[in-house]
Design a protein that fits this description.
173 residues; five-stranded parallel β-sheet
Length: 173
């Protein structure tokens, strides 16, 4: 089985992917590493280059992780998960990474408007978004529950639009 995990930078994709892969006995494919993109750097990547790079490294029993993973069209990918994070928490995570104010603003606003989820929903059916604001173990257990039982244990609204005005003020754009 192949699982893809996507989401805005800072939502916890890599940590969730590592723990999920360990519990399943899978291998993690860090797409950005394969593409030679340094952590936290912005680099333009064509979808065709993304797909070719991943395709050459794809096998069964892998977890693909990248903020670009939802752009993959490989039919072997069984699940597409979009991790989410409440914007005030995401601000703290991105600042800890050393992101400048503009980069924090852009990423947090993209999360607040459901950017990755909306992009993914246009490309795939059955996108599952899961809140990863609080506890990575709970996130991984929710994913494992879905895989084993075929359903999501709780509904996540994913609506962070209520944060937009306060984020605008807090980040002083």
């Amino acid at each position: 089985m192949i699982i893809a995990i996507s989401g805005t930078p800072g939502v916890g994709k890599s940590k969730v992917a590592e723990l999920l892969a360990r519990k399943l006995g899978y291998r993690v494919i860090e797409v950005n590493r394969l593409l030679g993109i340094p952590h936290g750097k912005e680099v333009e990547v064509s979808i065709s280059k993304l797909e070719k790079t991943v395709e050459h490294n794809l096998s069964d029993n892998v977890v693909i992780v990248s903020h670009l993973a939802h752009f993959l069209h490989d039919k072997r990918i069984k699940y597409f998960f979009v991790l989410r994070c409440e914007p005030p928490v995401l601000i703290k995570r991105l600042r800890r990474r050393g992101y400048n104010n503009l980069k924090v603003y852009d990423n947090v606003m993209f999360e607040a408007i459901d950017g990755t989820y909306l992009e993914a929903s246009k490309l795939h059916r059955n996108i599952i978004h899961i809140d990863n604001t609080k506890n990575i173990d709970e996130t991984v257990n929710a994913i494992l529950f879905l895989i084993k039982k075929g359903k999501v244990p709780t509904q996540f609204s994913g609506d962070y639009s209520k944060y937009i005005i306060s984020l605008e003020r807090a980040l002083k754009r």
